[in-house]
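Anyone have tokens for Inner membrane transporter RhtA? Sequence:
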Amino acid sequence: MRLAPASRTPFPRATETAHRTVPTPAGSDPGPVLDSGLDPGLEQGPASDLDRRPTGRRFAGVATMIGSGLSNQTGAAIGSQAFPAIGPVGVVAVRQYVAAIVLLAVGRPRLRSFTWWQWRPVVGLAVVFGTMNLSLYSAIDRIGLGLAVTLEFLGPLCIALAGSRRRVDACCALVAAAAVVALMRPRPSADYLGMGLGLLAAVCWASYILLNRAVGRRVPGAQGPAAAAGISALMFLPVGIAVAVHQPPTVSAAAYAIIAGVLSSAVPYLADLFTLRRVPAQAFGLFMSVNPVLAALVGWVGLGQSLGWTEWTSVGAIVAANALSILTRRG
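Reply: yep, here.
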């Protein structure tokens, strides 16, 4: 997508760094965490922690978050330019290769030391990672960047709200559900397959978050996500070869796919390494909820994918539901 969604690019710990890049996730992709509850390493410090940080570092962290979000969504938009030549599956294959190169270089997993107890969630994470990005990019091809990323974002939002007994979270869940109903309302132009793919990306992003928890508990450092990225890239290797044989990519299509991989996988992951050391988890999660809006704006400006008032209202309602849930939580 969250590569999710389209989504941003959301990994186990702040020191081990997390994003859906193994995403992201993406978009989504690409990928994002909503709060410390989604990722055990994103620990929520006291509110005063933010005040203790130097203004310059906070500004740098916020600027990096904005750049990461725009990079993730811009990468997905650029990747969509290669759809006519190699299709979403070809673009996703290249994105998986780029993610694997970056994460294997950073994580340096010691694969021979992994036990079967450690391999199980890593393999599951690899499968979910690839499925999430493929379903997100296929949704982008059918319903556009903004709506695809918005539907994918429902995955982490459901994880954040599930199990909560607060009335405000129940209200947030109702608002998000109403927004989804509005987005998927029957109409002649509705592409239900595309919407279904967006919801599949949401399910994958939610599964990605839960599997990341298990990987973070069982595998030290960033070795687990790096190993998962490598396995996912191997899974897409025959896919990439098949696409290259049956639909030989043009130079421009290959360039678009590579740029998408860099902007939606490498840049968000490295940006999160920087951001999570400078911005509290609550602020990080709050900003990640803005990704559907960024996706809609990038789709509108870069791809000419305009949304109607109903769609904009629904996107805003889902973002507001997540923001309200985060802002009303206590340390």
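Residues 1-53 have pLDDT under 50 and may be disordered.
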